[in-house]
Amino acid sequence: MEPDTASDNTSLDDKTEDYCENPTRDALTEGIMSLLKPTVDQLDERVRATRISQIELRQQIDSLTEELMKINEALQCPLELEAYVDKLVCAKRKVVVVSNILQKTQERLNKILEAVEKETNKRKALLDRSSMYHSATIKTETDESVSGASNIPDTSQ
Asked: Which of 32, 41, 72, 124 has its CB 3.0 to 4.6 Å from that of 81, i.e. a possible disulfide?
């Protein structure tokens, strides 16, 4: 490829005009956005609610573990509560793992949502620039045709 054609291929003016002239693509983009955004928002809210319930569950497991240890120390009887305490500790670990997974999932969802909004804003900015360019071009052409008509001398006198 020649160096001159390579620089022409990266021209923003050439690409902007082609990019913004496709109403089907714009309609498709808006349609996909209107479908995805509510779903992502709803999923994000549900993940947030699940994380809150996971935190509450972890706190309850901690308090129950402490109570069982106090009972075990106070009774000093042959009952073996250590197995139950171990099960609670194991359940707590699982809750922590699930909570971490949910947190990472929520972070990924937030990044996806930010990327979608950024892409939408970029496309809207390109559309705005394109419409301003086209309206300025039409106005210039109209001004030129009007001024060209007024420069013709009036020979009817």
From this structure: 72
Q: Each residue of 104-129: pLDDT tens digit?
A: 999 998 999 899 999 988 888 888 88
Contact 116, 30 (CB under 8 A): no
pTM over 0.85: no
Cα angle value 19/25/29 (rounded, 5°) = 115
Phi, psi at 80, each rounded to 5°: -100, 100
Whether 89 contacts 69, CB under 8 Å: no
Query: How far apart are the C-alpha atoms of 81 and 86, rounded to whole Å?
Result: 9
Q: How far is CA 55 from the centre of its chain?
A: 26
Count CA within 13 A, CB hemisphere, residue 43.
16
Which residue blocks in 76-152 are alpha helix, DSSP H? 82-150
The angle at the Cα of 156, spanning 150 to 157, to the nearest 5 degrees, equals: 110
- From the list 31, 60, 134, 47, the residue with the least C-alpha distance to 98 is 47
